[in-house]
Design a protein that fits this description.
It is a single chain. By secondary structure, this protein is an alpha/beta fold. Among the domains are: about 100 residues, Urease, subunit C, domain 1 (Roll), CATH 2.30.40; about 110 residues, Diaminopimelate Epimerase, Chain A, domain 1 (Roll), CATH 3.10.310; about 80 residues, no CATH class. The chain is built from 17 helices and 23 strands. Helix 2 packs parallel to helix 3, helix 6 packs across helix 7 and helix 9 packs across helix 10.
Length: about 525
């Protein structure tokens, strides 16, 4: 008998630790929220008050870390309509009409995740929404969050007409006659977005609470919230104080402004449950809405090279501020031009072998010579495997054959010696991290297409995929010393699964569910 028995013992399990020193185990003992023993036999840690869970051979993996999410956005999605799989403009309009009928006249109708590639690829017109809800302003976010679709009422409130100039870093889509169509790209969304009543603190709190519960249900034990404001920070602090935050939060400050300036004075806020030590910048738009910035025009839109939202000197200035005060910089960059700009800006400030772990969020389309710059400057690639399997329907059409080799290239990035931290970018993609694992290893959609995988040379091995969802996420947050794998002394954040994702055929992986989620050795979700 040990002097200090464990609080919890997991036995008779197939444990995949993500720890290279001991990759497999059958049992694990937990005390005080940390792993105190892991191996084939831990019976010596069982005391009279120890909770013993016999898993009867079930698979256990470390808690999954989603390195790029939008928690408030997920919470809002859970309370509105998800248009992700809607196949026609008419169906969207019908949903808007039904929702407007339940709201007082003049109230905003909101939903997100429309995708014009579901109905042939053409951007929609405001007319369908105008007819569906003539007395309600409507704002629908595109699936990538980089375009909005509005009706005439919303344009009238925002003062948008055919003569309204494009804002810097944004574009008002117009038809051949020059009329505004109702689709707004990147910063042009702000023309309407600024007129929508801001959410109250209570509304934001409720969204964060709902999103955190959903994350626990789906097997995320840590999320990196990619761009929070003061309301979100207040919400997280309230949930933490009330014991209502079931997952750990690594929060990125949402760009320059008063909040960033305040943290530059006070320094990073680092705790096991809530950390603020990074800033999120946005360099360009997205490929799906043709706002990602490229050196050459889009293959299906000659003359359009996308939108640069930031200048290099801005990224350099923020990088220097961050370096001085101990913060990390995480820049959204999708097109090859935006990625190179961010890498050049980082390089001027960081130099080689810097250990600062600056990140590029998405790193979606890279010029082939630029992969080496990630390694040279120690830049982490925060990539999302499901972006590849969602975008593969039209990626070649947008990019053309010359650019595709450097696009959605997770394995090429890993082979270049770069840390690849995986994520979902929810609610852009569905939040289930097990689908991210599946996409990383199969390069297939949920229906198993294409049969050989899309660009199968970019598949991760299962071990690489697991590391990208666990250890790499911890490393990207400076937390790999105490979480991201199951080893003695590390946090007891782990999942019990309904199937073994490390051995099942690809076709079976989408069926696997999380049966239980543990954070610091405590059950935060269970369906067992």
């Amino acid at each position: 008998m040990y002097a200090q028995p464990a609080d919890l013992v997991i036995s008779n399990a197939a444990i995949y630790t993500a720890d290279a020193g001991k990759p497999r185990a059958k049992a694990m003992a937990v005390r005080g929220g940390r792993v105190v023993a892991i191996g084939d036999e831990v019976r010596g840690f069982i005391g009279p008050k120890t909770q013993v869970v016999d898993l009867q051979g079930a698979a256990v993996i470390p808690g999954l870390i989603d390195s790029h999410v939008h928690m408030s956005g997920l919470g809002q999605l859970l309370e509105t309509s998800d248009l992700r799989h809607v196949k026609s403009v008419a169906e969207v309009a019908a949903m808007v009409k039904a929702r407007a009928a339940r709201l007082p006249k003049g109230s905003w109708v909101r939903a997100r995740n429309w995708d014009q590639t579901n109905w042939g690829g053409e951007f929609p017109l405001h007319t369908a929404l105008t007819e569906a809800a003539p007395e309600h302003p409507v704002f629908l976010s595109r699936v990538d969050g980089h375009a909005g679709w509005v009706n005439r009422k919303a344009m009238e409130i925002a003062g948008i007409d055919d003569k309204t100039p494009d804002p810097m870093g944004g574009k008002i889509i117009r038809d051949s006659a020059g009329h505004a169509t109702g689709v707004l790209i990147d910063r042009a969304q702000g023309l309407v977005g600024s007129k929508i009543p801001a959410a109250t603190d209570d509304e934001v709190l409720a969204r964060l609470r709902a999103a955190a519960r959903e994350c626990a249900r789906l097997g995320m034990t840590t999320v990196h919230d990619a761009g929070i404001g003061e309301q979100e920070l207040r919400g997280y602090r309230k949930l933490l104080a009330a014991g209502q935050l079931p997952v750990r939060i690594y929060a990125m400050i949402g760009g320059e402004g008063a909040m960033w300036n305040r943290f530059l004075q006070t320094g990073p806020e680092v705790h096991e449950r809530l950390t603020v030590r990074s800033i999120k910048l946005v360099a360009d738009g997205a490929i799906g809405s043709r706002g990602a910035a490229f050196w050459q025009p889009y293959a299906d839109d000659p003359g359009n090279t996308g939108l640069m939202i930031l200048k290099q000197e801005t990224v350099e200035r923020v990088a220097r501020q961050a370096m001085e005060k101990g913060f990390q910089v995480n820049t959204h960059a999708i097109g090859d031009r935006a990625n190179r700009m961010a890498l050049d800006a980082y390089g001027k400030v960081l130099g080689e072998n810097n250990g600062k772990r600056f990140r590029i969020e998405h790193a979606q389309a890279i010029s082939l010579p630029d992969f080496a710059l990630f390694k040279k400057f120690g830049v982490i690639a925060s990539m999302q495997s499901t972006h590849a399997t969602s975008d593969m329907r039209w990626a070649m059409k947008r990019l053309g054959p010359d650019r595709i080799a450097g696009a959605y290239a997770q394995k090429r990035m890993l082979n270049a010696g770069v840390v690849v931290a995986n994520g979902s970018d929810f609610p852009v993609e569905e939040p289930n991290p097990l689908m991210g694992f599946y996409a990383a290893v199969s390069r297939q959609d949920v229906n198993g297409e294409p049969k050989e995988g899309w660009r199968p040379e970019e598949r991760f091995t299962r071990e690489e995929a697991l590391r990208s969802w666990t250890w790499a996420g911890a490393y990207a947050a400076f937390e790999e010393d105490w979480k991201g794998s199951l080893a003695v002394g590390k946090a007891a954040d782990f999942l019990v699964l309904s199937g073994d994702i490390m051995t099942l055929p690809f076709a079976e992986l989408p069926k696997v569910k999380v049966q239980a989620t543990y954070v610091a050795g405590e059950t935060v979700y269970s369906d067992r």
